[in-house]
Amino acid sequence: MAVWCSIVIPARNDAAALALTLDALDRLEERSRAEIVVAACGDPAGTTHAARERVRLLWPESGTRAALMNAGAAAAGGEVLFFLHADSMPPPDALARIAAALADPRVVGGAFEHRFAEPAWSLRAINLVNRIRYRLTRNWYGDQGIFVRAEVFRALGGYRDLRLMEDLDFSQRLKARGRSVLVDAPVVTSGRRFLARGPWRTFFFIVWLLARWTLGLDTERYAERWRG
Fold this sequence. Notes:
Elements (H helix, E strand, L loop, with lengths): L4 E8 L2 H12 L7 E8 L2 H8 L4 E3 L6 H11 L4 E4 L4 E2 L4 H9 L4 E10 L4 H17 L9 E3 H6 L10 H10 L3 E11 L2 H6 L1 H16 L8 H5 L1
Parallel strand pairs: 1-2, 1-4, 2-3, 6-8
Antiparallel strand pairs: 4-7, 5-8, 6-7
Helix pairs in contact: 1-2
């Protein structure tokens, strides 16, 4: 069966999380219609072990997440590109839901609802605020599993090589191209970064970065602080 969807995963020193995500993707309904392309940077031994023979594993020269996703997309053969973080797991019927959304020719792409994997009350509260935010703005973030028609992705020039906000920038440009929809099912993402740094401290740092982005101020210089 021809590949319809290419699942592109950027992985930066994230072998343990990647292994769990790939295990979940092995259980996807209609898995035979999709290929998985992992564009990796760092931890070659761990990443290679996690990937095994089940994915196409690339090692691009640049390690920004935008560059990794662009490299994965360039090697992809599907009509649809589905971008996942290495620690994000889509619903089992994700491919069918994407196909249903794209059955409308006016739809150019979209994303899924978001939910943290951990049950901490702070993460639940942050998740509620985030859901209100992206439903009002229709701006999608990388941990929501952004999907897009491959021809539209290439016409837009892919992700801009930003160290931060590459997903927000892309989703804003995607909206200008056509209908960008929200799929009513969650991609489940690890909240480990929030829990390790302090949930509310991390949340307000993100809000501050979003405010700077909205005002047209520099966010690039805070990339290393975000990465920790």
